[in-house]
Amino acid sequence: MKKSILALHFLIVLVLNSAVAQSVSDSLRIEELIKRSEELRYIHTDSAILWMKEAHRLATTNDLAAQTAKALYLIGVGFHVKGELDSAEHYYSQSLPKLVLSNDSTGLSSVTNNLGLIKLNRGDNSSAIEFILRSATIDERLGDKAAFASSLNNIGLIYRQIHDNENALRFYRRAEKIQTELEDDFRLVQLYNNMGLIKEEQGEVDSASFFYRKSLEKAYAPESQNHRANPLIGMGQLFFNTGQLDSAYLYAQEAVAVSTQTQQPKTLSVAKLLIGQVELRKGRLGAAERHLTAAYQLALESDLKPEIEQAALRFHELYKRRGDYKKALEYFELYEKTKTELLNEANIREVTKHEERYKSEKERQQLRIEQNEATLKLEKEKFQAQIQQRNTLIALTLIVLITIGITFSLYNKKKTGQKLEALNHDLFLKNNKLNRLDEFRTRFLANINHDFRTPLTLIKGRTEQIIGDERSYLTKKSEKHLQQILENAETLHHMSEEIQNLGKIEESQLEVQWQAVNLSAFTHAIVELFSSRADMEVKYLKFENKTAGKDLIHLDKRHYQRILNNLLSNAFKFTRQGDTITVSVEGEEHHALITVNDTGMGIKEGDQPYIFDRFYQSSANPYSEKEGFGIGLTLVRELIGLHGGSISVESHEGTGTTFTFSLPYHLDQVISEEQAAISNVPDDKQIVQPVYQNVDLDESDRPEILVVEDHQAVRDYIIDVIGSDFKVKEASHGKQALEILQKGIPDLIITDLMMPWMDGFELIEALEQNTEYSKIPIMVVSARTSDEDKMRVLELGVNDFLNKPFNVQEFHKRIKNLISKTSHSGSWEYITKDNNLKTDVEKDILSKIHNLVVARISDPNLTVDVLADALCASTRKTHTLIKNLTGKPPKTYIKTIRLEYVQHLIQNSKVSTLLEAAQAIGMKNGTEFKTQYQRQFGKEPFTR
Q1: Quick one: pLDDT at residue 598?
Q2: What is the CATH number of the domain that holds 323?
Q3: pLDDT tens string 169-192
Q4: Domain-ending residue, one of 817, 846, 873
Q5: Which one of 268-282, 657-671, 675-689 scores highest in mean pLDDT?
Q6: Are residues 569 and 646 in the same domain?
Q7: Are residue 386 and residue 353 in the same domain, yes or no?
Q8: pLDDT tens digits, one per residue of 551-596
Q9: Which among 26, 239, 368, 588 is placed 20 to 30 Å from 632, CA to CA?
């Protein structure tokens, strides 16, 4: 009996040991499979997925929670790499609860980040931001820099998806800084490729090429092979766009090879499509057809609609060149169809999502109804049974049924209320979506407004320069054309101001500067500005004053003129020759009425309720080519609202339109003394011709200016405008400017704000943090004109801010004011005459420098290097010190002291000839000494 028990005990121990050994073996096998999968998932994706499924089976069998969660996550990664997003999302979602239970924060961060990328790919930007921000929060808490940088990169992707390239680049630069520090080449490949795409969209070919090449430099590691095709295609597309077809072909071929190796149908299709375009451009139609067919087949197999669209367009071009117009038409119809599908795809997904949500809710309600019906039926059967068994319980049963009925009624009422609440919430969300769309369009216009101010600066400035140059020969016809160019540039400037003012109103930043104005006189003066246009267009312009002595009003002149200009411009646009435009002013008890009436084409009745809506333009308007962005009347309404007034319109199609707006008198409005004067003159800006003053200065005496501007044409224009008064150095971005500053300190820095690599904000911060550079005056010349930007740069210590486009004469004055203030506050004469403005330390230093110069007054080799050695300082620091204390470069300062010293010798008869005087101060040539002396003191030496 004992032997049997011992044998059984031994058998149990053997089985347990075997189970433990098997568990350990399986755990090691799982780790091996995970490691192999992570190493090869970007090269042999299908094999990696199979290995991870085996790892998942083993982990589940052995109840290993952490390994199970990791295996599910890595299976999702495999499908993500293959582009099968539904499968990837399924496995990611399965891994999430297991990662939470196993307390794997790193895995949780990776999964939420990848789910965000999938949402981004589907156009669900709000969900994408939610997931990626959750991932970034986890990474920051863990101190995981690599993962945090990846999240920053993905946030940049979202901004790029909504075409906010400025914010996208901002997050990309933050991610680049961390990933460069970590030497994370795998993620830098994608980062630089995305930055290259943005620069290519912005038309900055050199910058795009720079980032594509940086991406390729990082893309040779095995784990980066999967992303190498993208920068190759980017480089190929750049070369194609610039006409370098052979280079484009080589890059596209290499992209084909990489995409084939890594099994990427999308990039393979794009690469073959690019080769087809090159062949088509070269006229090799047969080769073009082969490559385009291959690209088209790949796109069809993988349902790549953007590539189908592009292939169809290229086939249309190919068959049109062959003369096969039937096939060309077929492919053009396919192109139009695919393009329409792509435009509607996002809306279809949104509608489908709402339909599925509604269907699911309906099924849940149906299930509740069936449950309630089943409950009611059961209670009814019980009631009948109770009648048969015990009649005494009838009353109690009736009470139960009544209670159930009331409960059911209340339940249905509650559900109805919830449905109404859900519908109201849905309407609220849709309204918010429309508001966001309006905000996006406003921001989009603001970005365009910023970009087109730079070419507008060049157009206005160069035209003013040509017209104002008396030395240039212009025919009357040419001068007329130039004046037309200038007038149209002013029109563009006016449109730019409208866009900017609309943005300010939206952000509650536009203020009313109250002024006392004679309303009838001021209105009449504005109307008179349009009289020449009326004569030219053969139209009748009238003004009627019905104020009956109630002329005084408080308003903002600029805003009022903009209101009237917009209404009159619209009236001129939509009237014909012989029509009449009448402006009348009428005084009521508490407010003034201003009416702009025309006998033109009128406004359709269906359009009238919407004409003040932002961006609204009637599709039925035959004059639509005359309209702008659809913001003019919106701006009018908002400006009138700022004054506490209102506007209305009355129009009949074919007979004319009347706009009527009222403005309160605001006679109790408190205004400053400067604003109190009555002004009846509209702000009609005159073009000021540029004034150039060529001063014949010694090269070393000219103030030095550093111009920092990334746009080459604008930089050349600024340098040209400055003229010959200054020595000019130039830099295309902040980093280059800092390199130039190491070689010498200028008297002034003129910088733009929007620049690559290091923008104007970063440059100003770098200058302020350096004690040597912080004293250099800075002028910002930028198209960024918002109050927020101005306040930001002024808080950083900028001395002046000038908007693009700028007036040349004003530009000159501002430069000279800045330099003269700096020179005066630090000039040698000023220090020596008014010591109260300098510290004792500075006086001592200046005295020491002066004594050093006097001690070696006759040494011809006395230079700033000699002074630097005596002061135990670097040459550059000594140069800056003398410049700051005296306002003069060291060479000029030494020469000034020498000439004043020799003047003293001459006056006291210590020297008697030009040669003796010259040698006394280290000069060998008497004639040169005479020239320098006469230039300094205005008379010849030895003249009494």
Answers
A1: 93
A2: 1.25.40.10
A3: 888 888 888 878 877 777 787 778
A4: 817
A5: 268-282
A6: yes
A7: no
A8: 788 888 888 988 998 889 888 888 988 899 999 998 887 888 999 9
A9: 588
Q: Which CATH number fits the domain that encloses residue 536? A: 3.30.565.10
Please state at what angle helix 285-301 crosses helix 305-322, rounded to 10 degrees. Answer: 150
Identify whether 405 is part of a domain.
yes
Find out whether 611 and 634 touch, Cβ atoms under 8 Å: no
Return d(Cα 40, Cα 57) in angstroms, integer: 20
753/760 Cα distance (integer angstroms): 4
Tens digits of per-residue pLDDT, 352-374?
545 544 554 555 566 566 666 66
**Which has the higher per-residue pLDDT, 90 or 831?**
90
Mean pLDDT within 83-94:
85
Are 83 and 47 in contact by the 8 Å Cβ rule? The answer is: no
pLDDT at 237: 82
Per the domain annotation, does 466 fall within a domain? Answer: no
Q: Which of residues 349 and 943 earns the better pLDDT score?
A: 943
**Sign of CA pseudo-dihedral 594, 600, 603, 604:** positive
Query: Could you list the residue range(s) of the whole structural domain that residue 933 is in?
Result: 829-937
Residue finishing a domain among 783, 817, 851: 817
**Which pairs from 789-793 meet CB under 8 Å and 24+ separation?**
789/753, 792/761, 793/753, 793/760, 793/761, 793/764
Higher pLDDT, 597 or 384: 597
**25-33 average pLDDT score:** 73
Give yes or no: residues 254 and 347 share one domain. Answer: no
Buried b (16+ CB within 10 A) or exposed e, 342-369: eeeeeeeeeeeeeeeeeeeeeeeeeeee
Co-location of 192 and 117 in the same domain: yes
Cβ 611 vs Cβ 649: under 8 Å? yes
Return the higher-pLDDT residue of 480 and 551: 551
Residues 117 and 160 in one domain: yes
Cα 742 to chain centroid distance, Å, stands at: 31
What is the distance between the alpha carbons of residues 555 and 513, in angstroms, rounded to a whole number?
A: 7
Q: Is residue 488 one of the residues assigned to a domain?
A: no
Q: Which residues pair with 357 in a beta bridge?
A: none
State the Cα–Cα distance between residues 907 and 887, nearest whole angstrom. 27
Whole-angstrom distance, CA of residue 46 vs CA of residue 40: 10
How many helices (H) and strands (E) would you count in the chain? 35, 12
- Residue 401 has, within 13 A of its CA and on its CB side, a CA count of 16
Domain count within the chain = 6
pLDDT reading at 228 higher than 90? no
Q: Cβ-count burial of 503 within 10 angstroms (0-12 exposed, 13-18 middle, 19+ buried)?
A: middle
Is the Cα dihedral 22, 26, 28, 29 positive or negative?
Answer: positive
Same domain, 65 and 113: yes
Place of tokens 């101190």: 143
DSSP β-ladder status, 778-782 and 800-803: parallel
The helix (H) or strand (E) run that includes residue 257 is helix 245-262
Largest CA distance in the chain: 150
Lowest mean pLDDT among 40-49, 305-314, 366-375, 621-630: 621-630
pTM of the model: 0.32
- With a CB cutoff of 8 Å and minimum separation 6, the contacts of 833 are none
User: CATH number, domain at 880?
Assistant: 1.10.10.60
Kindly state the helix (H) or strand (E) to which residue 561 belongs, with its residue range: helix 557-573
Residues 129 and 204 in one domain: yes
Pairing of strands 540-546, 748-751: unpaired
- Residue keyed to tokens 């009331």: 406
Say if residues 443 and 436 touch (Cβ distance below 8 Å): no
First to last CA, the chain: 143
Q: Give the length of the chain.
A: 944
Region of 757 on the Ramachandran plot (φ > 0 left; ψ -120 to 50 alpha; else beta) = left
Q: How many Å apart are CA 406 and CA 370, to the nearest integer? A: 18
Is residue 412 in some structural domain?
yes
813-845 per-position pLDDT tens digit: 788 778 865 554 433 333 333 333 345 566 767
* 347, 386: one domain: no
